[in-house]
Amino acid sequence: MRFLLALTFAFAALAAGAQQLPVADLSIGMHLIHAEVADSPGSRMQGLMYRESMPTSAGMVFVFEENALHCMWMKNTLLPLSVAFIDEAGAIINIADMQPKSEQTHCAAKPARFALEMNKGWFAQRGIKAGAKLRGLEKLKPR
């Protein structure tokens, strides 16, 4: 299963002309997430642009260099996504739904160290709200 997910990410990255990113296993409660890690300025800028699909339990975690009021947008992003802004302790600050190809910004309600993008509605469908804690973020550092 993990091999197939990695293979899916590799093909998606090649199709989008993107670099292959490392994948981190994260969890929220009983939900496991295989998240590509955007931990450099270039990978954070590229994000999920030009992707046409993403597996249900997959996402992208953005690792920021500093705790700040980070914002996300969807320019050149084809998938509808939900983003969770997350503090240094791994607690979700707020979640926003984002529309494809939009330049509308969605920002953290308070300083965040991470952002996790998943398919739109992923958090709501699982009853995950602000205050929920993610495990696995402690090993992620910006490059």
Tally of distinct domains: 1
**First-last Cα distance:** 28 Å
Number of strands: 9
Report mean pLDDT, rounded to a whole number.
89
Overall structural class, as computed from helix and strand content, comes to: alpha+beta
Portion in helices: 10-25%
In the CATH hierarchy, the architecture is: Sandwich
- What is the radius of gyration computed over CA atoms, rounded to a whole number of angstroms? 14 Å
Strand order of the main beta sheet, please? 6-5-8-3-2-1-9
Spatial shape: globular
CATH classification, class level: Mainly Beta
Walkthrough of the structure:
The protein has 143 residues and is an alpha+beta fold. It has a single domain (2-138), classed as Sandwich (Jelly Rolls), CATH 2.60.120.1140. It contains 3 helices and 9 strands. The chain has a 7-stranded mixed beta sheet with strand order 6-5-8-3-2-1-9. The protein has a two-stranded antiparallel sheet with strand order 4-7. The longest helix has 15 residues, at 2-16.
Short description:
With 143 residues, the chain is α+β, with helices and mostly antiparallel strands.
Features:
alpha+beta; Jelly Rolls; seven-stranded mixed beta sheet; two-stranded antiparallel ribbon; 3 helices; 17% helix; 36% strand; disordered N terminus
List the helices and strands and how they pair.
Elements: H1 2-16, E1 23-28, E2 31-38, H2 41-46, E3 58-68, E4 71-72, E5 81-86, E6 92-98, E7 106-107, E8 112-119, H3 122-125, E9 134-135
Parallel strand pairs: 2-3
Antiparallel strand pairs: 1-2, 1-9, 3-8, 4-7, 5-6, 5-8
